[in-house]
Amino acid sequence: MVDLTGVHRVISRIEEIKARFNVNVEKSFGEILENAISEYETKLNKAKDNVQEADIPEKKAKEIIERTARALGVDADLALAVAKVESNFKQNAVSSKGAVGIMQLMPTTAASLGVNPYDVEENVLGGVFYLKKLLERYDGDVVKALAAYNAGPFNVEKYGGIPPFRETQEYVEKVMKYYMSMKEK
């Protein structure tokens, strides 16, 4: 026979805590998750409403990117090249897939990074930090990191490099071209 006294003590303790905090309604994991997502979306929409619709000047965007890249130890020229191709340094850019801002962060990626994609500074911080993590993941392989930035790490690993997606192939080519032209200056 299995001894369940430990389980019963845990359940009892949970009931005590629920009573203490007046938690009377049992919620399923799905309900809790839906509430959390709803709260996040509400917070994000409030932040979005508070963001100015006008873009910041390109010069200011570049300064933010360069400063953030230096702080995170990422090649500023690479971060600038990503921003150039992603949004042409436009904070109010939104892709057809829902990517937002200068670094074109997907809302789920922004949430996982704990940044507000509608805030210029946070958008850049999130994008440059994500780029840094991808560079680390691929041992400094810029091409793989760029492919993952565009198509996701799963696809890069699945195909062992740049996935056979036209969009990703063109994206990597554009970023590398811009990056190399900046290195020649």
UniProtKB/TrEMBL annotation:
<dbReference type="GO" id="GO:0016829">
    <property type="term" value="F:lyase activity"/>
</dbReference>
<dbReference type="InterPro" id="IPR008258">
    <property type="entry name" value="Transglycosylase_SLT_dom_1"/>
</dbReference>
<keyword id="KW-0456">Lyase</keyword>
<feature type="domain" description="Transglycosylase SLT">
    <location>
        <begin position="65"/>
        <end position="170"/>
    </location>
</feature>
<dbReference type="InterPro" id="IPR023346">
    <property type="entry name" value="Lysozyme-like_dom_sf"/>
</dbReference>
<dbReference type="Pfam" id="PF01464">
    <property type="entry name" value="SLT"/>
</dbReference>
<protein>
    <submittedName>
        <fullName>Soluble lytic murein transglycosylase</fullName>
        <ecNumber>4.2.2.-</ecNumber>
    </submittedName>
</protein>
